[in-house]
Write a structure and sequence with these properties.
The protein is an alpha/beta fold and 176 residues long. It contains 7 helices and 7 strands, in the order βαβαβααβαββαβα.
């Protein structure tokens, strides 16, 4: 059994929840460590056989520190079994919920110039009650424009957990 590291970049915590689900479903759950992106540079990445990175989208962008981390660690990442997944609400639409069709995944791959062994795209969550006044109304406007839910008194989770389970099975199979 080899050690795996899951690094997450999350705005509201849902990406971390997905990472925890991946760990709980993985056949290697006992050897998986989960850390936020903000702590990842403090780790010795060399000790991990597999590195999985999950990142959320807010206002159409991944966290800029995600790209800095990948750029700084590209040589190590190339040598490891690796996976990347993006969490975004656009992926609630069937025509935009795969790595090949999701605009944020396409943009990520182009900007990062990193080629993980496995890619995943998961629909996220709109949690209006948790948002600040400004975020609540900007996200509501975006949802209105994209024909999504706009009731700011509710939370809307779009994550297909069976898709997360399938992704986990696939990353468990990445050859060493």
């Amino acid at each position: 059994m080899s050690a795996s590291l899951i690094i997450y970049s999350s705005t509201d915590g849902h990406t971390k929840t997905i990472c925890e689900k991946i760990r709980s479903v993985s056949k290697n759950s006992d050897s998986i460590k989960i850390v936020p992106l903000s702590e990842a540079n403090e780790l010795s990445l060399h000790i991990y056989e597999q590195i999985i990175i999950g990142a959320s989208i807010r206002y159409g962008k991944h966290n800029k520190n995600l790209y800095k981390f990948i750029s700084s660690n590209k040589e190590i990442l190339k040598k490891k079994r690796s996976a990347f997944f993006s969490v975004n609400v656009v992926a609630r639409k069937p025509e935009k919920n795969t790595p090949e069709t999701n605009p944020y995944m396409k943009k990520f791959l182009k900007i990062s110039n990193w080629k993980p062994d496995k890619l995943g795209v998961f629909a996220g969550k709109v949690d209006y009650p948790k948002y600040s006044f400004i975020d609540k109304h900007l996200i509501q406007l975006i949802m209105f424009i994209t024909k999504g839910p706009t009731d700011t008194s509710k939370t809307f989770e779009f994550t297909d957990w069976s898709k997360v389970n399938d992704f986990t099975k696939e990353i468990d199979k990445i050859p060493q």
